Amino acid sequence: MNQVDVKVEKLVKKFGNKLAVDNVSFEVKKGDFFSILGPSGCGKTTTLRMISGFEVPTSGKIWVGGEPMEGVPPHKRKTNLVFQNLALFPMMNVFDNIAFGLVMRGESKKKIRQAVEEMLEVINLKGYGKKMINQLSGGEKQRVAIARALVLHPTVLLLDEPLGALDLKLREHMKIELKKIQERIGTTFIYITHDQGEALVMSNKIAVMNQGRIQQIGTPDELYYEPVNSFVAQFVGENNKIDAEVIDISGNYVEVEASGIRLIGRKGQDVVKGEKVNYFIRPEMIRIAKDKNDIGSNVNKVKGKVKSVIFEGQVTRYEVTTDNGLNINVFVPNLSKSEMHKIGGTIYLSWDRDNPVVLKVQKIQAGVLE
Amino acid sequence: MQISRFERIFYRVFLVLFLIYLLGPLVIVIILSFNTAPAPTLPMKGLTLKWYKALFADSMLKESLLNSLAVAFAVTILSVSVATFTSFALVRYRFFGQGAFYAVALSPIITPGVILGVSILIFLYKLHFQPGLKAVVLGQSSFIISFAMLTIMSRLRKFDTALEEAAQDLGASKPKAILKITLPYLKPALISAASLSFLLSFDNFNTTLFLVGNDRTLPIQIYSMLRFGLSPKINAISTILVVATVIIGLFSGRITKQQGEA
Amino acid sequence: MRSLVMIHNKDRLRRNLTLFILLLPGILWVMMLIIIPQFQMFLDSFKYRPIYHKKGFTLKNYAYFFTNILYIKVFLRTLFAAVLTTFVSFLVCFPIAFYIAKVAKRELAQKIFILVIIPFWVSELIRTFSWMIILGDKGVINTFLMRLHLIKQPLSLLYNSFSVTVGLVYNYLLFMILPIYSTLEGMDNSLIEAAQDLGANRFNVFRKIIIPYSIPGIMSGSIMVFMLSIGTYIAPTLLGGKKEIWFTELIYNKFFKAMNWRLGSALAFTLLILTLLFIFSVIKITGLKLTDVIEED
User: Fold this and answer.
1) In chain B, which residues have pLDDT < 50?
2) Residue numbers in chain A where pLDDT is lower than 70
3) pLDDT at C32
């Protein structure tokens, strides 16, 4: 199963003087659920439109199913796209929408009927063929749009933020649904999103993109635990970012100073002594204790006061201000009903040295991280 | 909006008077077409259909009707096709001089029809092109295309180009995508542009007057009958036209409404 | 790289070719039926009549027009009547448009709307004819009044500027109602409510909120009604007096009776300029765009 379905090499796209996609390369293997994750305007949609053939690359190459795509128009590519707004044909019913591609191919009526009925079953919309598009719910439209593309058995299915228009609850549901459909039929998916939650849940590979460039490609847990730069550390999952300065480096660990306290973390990038860096520690990796003696063997210790307490169900979120002025968020999993720390109460935070990571300071466009 | 009782009465009375002003004259035209009196005036002396029978005997009227239908048909075809092409160019592309082109293309809507008629008459004369029905087709199209274009453009603007891309993505070539997706989407606008063009052409007088030469369209014929003297025959032809246009109007309104919702 | 550049050029070529094909009929139309004819008319208006066998340009046609008191009278009377028609149309149409857009319940509004539109599907000629029947000496009104013995002699209602104005307003009022209706329709009711909430009475709500909001619609309606009235031939010749001729009639007479096309061109061009002046002064005063005005309808 190591066949490469989509290969992109040194892809560049300029709009006038603006560099929308900057030297992007990646490979998508057969059966992958591959996500391109990034803030709006990062170039992910442009990349997708180049793969589907609606934009011509300024330079670089694309292969789909081993074949170069240079000069191949959209309708001759073995890629199919689920549009951001779905683009279902409003003047046709569900059946005709799904059948459209097969009709274009000139398949026989019998074959089309059979294929469409099969597809309706796959998306759990059996008997919906005669319905018009405006009679469908948001989730049903979603599934029809996917079916319309999948019925053509594309080498790769491209999805351009198709869940964006749905309300929160339906989106949660469709995430799982989409993943199930993909597992059932085994088609390669390339999924575009700005929602890191969507990407983490569904994908087995994610490319994080920003300002036209790929920041990191990896499995969801790789991105989460081993971000290669400050952008990825901030964009994927929640993180505490602490501005610090390198004091000492020993092997894979870096000792830093932040507002007068010393912290130790893994070395994520090559840094030198005296360099300004970002020290990242995820909120759920911090232990919170009332008593100084409860800290245990953790090397990083900070004393502070509880600033706010938010009960979120599975976890309780504490906002803590340390004695030296750092703001740190802590998630405490609610394994059973237990008493919460009080606002204003003194507490001790601690964490080990393997979870936090030290990364170079990276300039990030304002507004990219909300 | 909430209004006081006094205002409600004011609006009601005003509206009723207005509707009488608006519809009364046409009702009178229709009623008097059945009057036996030799001039179209009250009181009713008796009911008759003789004025309608007289219409069928009038060969000039028949000929002018056929002329009008032929002209309206040609104008409709010409206007809707030119307007469709132009709408695509204006909505889908950005090109040098677009704003100026658009302004000039809309200008006939606010140019008096007499001026369109006169200027085209002069121009055609320079080309040694004789006045007549062909000239009328050109003259009427000069402004009817603008109306058709406005109608088509406003729907084309609402078209989501992602639909066309979706069709291409599913294996349709660009021309096929336009044929299968965009044109069906435009159908209601094309129908209403066509019926509007037909109606505008069929009724046109001001521009036609200058270009018609010795041929006659129905409005020109009716006009000369009116100059000649009032006759209930004119009421009869008017009644037929009123009924026909209202039926066509209501019918095309319904079609465009249904299709527009799809 | 090189092949990519070629693809780019090919794409651009194809785009430009498609655009050219799409635009070609439109260019032919705009050039052959709008620009060149009107420019030709403009040039002709500065030429001598062919019978003089003189080449070159002259202001004679315009001089003749502007020094002829009779022509000037016709010109001014037409202009005044068109302005009057526009103003009367506004007075009649605004309450109706307001009522349909803001007061009447949805279903009633739709019914009124259809009733208002229906007469405008009927030919202008027939609509004018109906007023000839109504206003004539033996017309509906006079017969009616004489039967009631309210008058002995028929009132002369037809063939004067009164009948022309009545007919013109009747013929073109839809062009006033529609744009006003569509601006008012787009107006958020909460604007009215907010004004009332802040202490404005009925009159002030109209003066400060509703009228200013509907200015674009009023202007676009005024342009249409003015242009249609000043440029028509039907109502003035059928409803107007023999002595009070309309400017368009003058143009027609120059072309087809006096056979003086050059003078006719000068008159027609003056009419065009007058219409443009009216439109542009409206646009200037209100700061609208030409395309807004037209698309309003």
Assistant:
1) 262
2) 1-2, 364-370
3) 95
State the count of interchain CB pairs (< 8 A) between A and B. 65
Number of domains in chain B: 1
- CB burial of B21-39 (b: ≥16 within 10 Å; e: otherwise) equals ebeebbebbbbbbbbeeee
Which pLDDT score, from 0 to 100, does residue C96 have? 93
CATH number 1.10.3720.10 given to C59-296? yes
Residues of chain B with C-beta less than 8 angstroms from the C-beta of A85: 160, 162
Domains of chain A: 4-230 (3.40.50.300), 238-360 (2.40.50.100)
Task: Report yes or no: A228 and A213 within 8 Å, Cβ to Cβ.
Answer: no
Q: Which of B 38-77 lie inside 8 A of C, CB atoms? A: 39-43
DSSP C119-182: GGGS-HHHHHHHHHHHHSTTSHHHHHHHHTTS-SSPP--SSSHHHHHHHHHHHHTHHHHHHHHH
Does A58 sit within 8 Å of C11, measured CB to CB?
Answer: no
Helical (H) or strand (E) element with C223: helix C211-230
Instruction: List the Cα angle A122/A126/A128 in 5-degree steps.
Output: 125
Is B168's CB within 8 Å of A85's CB? no
Q: How high is the pLDDT of residue B259?
A: 57
Q: Which residues contact A177 (CB under 8 A, 6 or more apart)?
A: A139, A143
List the domain range (segments joined by +) for residue B155.
Answer: 33-261
State yes or no: pLDDT of C102 exceeds 90. Answer: no
**A358-A263-A250 Cα angle (round to 5):** 65
Structure tokens belonging to residue C47? 């030429």
Boundaries of every domain in chain C = 1-43, 59-296
CATH of the domain at B152: 1.10.3720.10
Supply the pLDDT for residue B262.
Answer: 44
Residue A74 C-alpha, separation from nearest chain C C-alpha, in angstroms: 13
The pLDDT value recorded for residue C122 is 85
For B229, the 3-state DSSP assignment is coil
The partner residues of A322 in beta bridges, in order of sequence, read A304
- Asked if pLDDT for residue C16 goes beyond 50, the answer is yes
Distance CA C36, CA B126 (A): 11
B246 interfacial to chain C (CB closer than 8 Å): yes
Give domain status of residue B14, yes or no.
no
A56:C7 CB<8 A: yes
CA distance B87 to B156: 8
Among residues A318, A228, A332, the alpha carbon closest in space to that of A278 is found at A228
C11 touches chain A (CB under 8 A): yes
| 3-class DSSP state of A62 | strand
Across the range C62-85, mean pLDDT stands at 91
Please list, residue by residue across B177-193, b when 16 or more beta carbons sit within 10 angstroms of its beta carbon and e when fewer do. Answer: bbebbbebbbbbbbbbb
User: Which secondary structure element, helix H or strand E, spans residue A329, and what is its range?
Assistant: strand A327-333
pLDDT exceeds 70 at position C294 = no
Q: Are the beta carbons of A100 and A148 closer than 8 angstroms?
A: yes
What is the side-by-side strand order in the sheet with A346-351?
Answer: A287-289, A346-351, A300-311, A315-322, A327-333
Question: What secondary structure does DSSP assign to C181-205, as a single string?
Answer: HHHHHTS-HHHHHHHHHTT--HHHI
Asked if the Cβ–Cβ distance from B162 to A74 is below 8 Å, we say: no
Distance from CA of A73 to the nearest CA of C (A): 11
Per the CB < 8 A criterion, the answer to whether C214 and C184 are in contact is yes
Kindly report whether the global pTM for this prediction surpasses the value 0.90.
no
Average pLDDT, chain C: 86
Pick from C30, C27, C58, C28: nearest CA to C45: C58
Is pLDDT above 90 for C110?
no
With CA atoms as reference, report the closest residue to A193 among A324, A84, A76.
A84
φ and ψ of C114, to 5 deg: -65, -40
Bridge partners, A156 (sequence order): A79, A188
